[in-house]
Specification:
Rossmann fold; single chain; three-stranded mixed sheet; alpha/beta; 32% helix; eight-stranded mixed sheet
């Protein structure tokens, strides 16, 4: 009860004009409806802040965020480089609404969020989620572990075409977090990766879940994960990118040649960084 009262008091204070802080910047938050910008989890994926601090310094240009969700990565970018051009994509309208409202309230002219899924084809696709701002929502049906998931339809576009239509002249960093559909997004951004050579931050899901006790996924889900991972390795090789696994405590990089999705005892995390060969070598 105390926590609930405290949460309401904080939201009321923001409604009355008390700003929130990301890095050295102060931002307005309006509306009493639940919105994570008003109650930021500053420790969510701490390691990613260290990674972003490095790559934003090394790679100038627009930050393209594929899978905005509630703005977890957006706020980290704001804290590090508030003037960095930001372009986000997410098919969940509730996510886009909250982020777009935040952008408008703070008169951010270099940030935009678009309610689209990015992939390697144009058209309406099935979208699987457990709620309005589901962090595990995906274009991929993840099988029997998620039988209660709602199915909707979203518009998907080829990433290269969208960036061209929006006249994005320079892309510095691309982050992809789309819960198993990463290879589709990468294929749709082949031209951007080949010609603009941005850094690429992305996630690859292992064949098990859980923190204390690991639970192996069903055979079909494992097969799908392996195919997705192999597609990514082959695409990055063709595009002349080096692959690094990110330490999820320090953010340090360790070069790897591929993904081991089945090694429960030596699991190092879901997150990876791809660097273009010949840029910064």
């Amino acid at each position: 009860m105390v926590n609930r009262v405290s949460s309401h008091v904080r939201r009321l204070l923001h409604q009355l004009g008390v700003p929130v802080r990301y890095g050295a910047q102060r931002f307005r938050v309006a509306g009493y409806h639940p919105v994570r910008f008003a109650t930021p989890d500053v420790h969510h994926e701490d390691f990613l802040s260290h990674v972003l601090a490095r790559v934003l310094k090394e790679f100038p240009g627009t930050f393209v965020d594929v899978g905005v969700n509630t703005g977890q990565t957006f706020t980290k970018v704001l804290a590090i480089d508030p003037q960095r051009p930001y372009l986000g994509f997410d098919p969940q309208l509730s996510c886009c609404f909250n982020v777009e409202q935040f952008i408008r309230l703070n008169s951010m002219t270099r940030a935009e969020v678009i309610p689209l899924a990015l992939g390697d084809s144009n058209g309406m696709l099935s979208f699987f989620s457990d709620g309005e701002v589901d962090e595990c929502a995906s274009l991929v049906d993840r099988g029997s572990r998620h039988q209660s998931r709602a199915v909707s339809h979203v518009q998907c576009r080829i990433g290269d075409e969208v960036l061209q239509e929006l006249h994005v002249a320079s892309v510095g960093v691309i982050k992809i977090d789309v819960e198993g559909a990463e290879s589709r997004v990468i294929r749709g951004l082949r031209g951007t990766l080949a010609h603009q050579r941005p850094a690429l931050i992305f996630e690859v899901l292992p064949n098990f879940s859980g923190i204390g006790q690991r639970v192996r996924h069903d055979d079909e889900a494992c097969r799908r994960n392996r195919a997705n991972a192999q597609d990514i390795v082959e695409e990055l090789q063709r595009l002349a990118y080096r692959l690094f696994q990110l330490d999820e405590e320090t953010g340090n990089e360790r070069q790897v040649s591929g993904f081991d999705l089945d090694d429960v005892d030596h699991f190092g995390g879901n997150n990876y960084l791809a660097r273009p060969i010949g840029v910064g070598d």
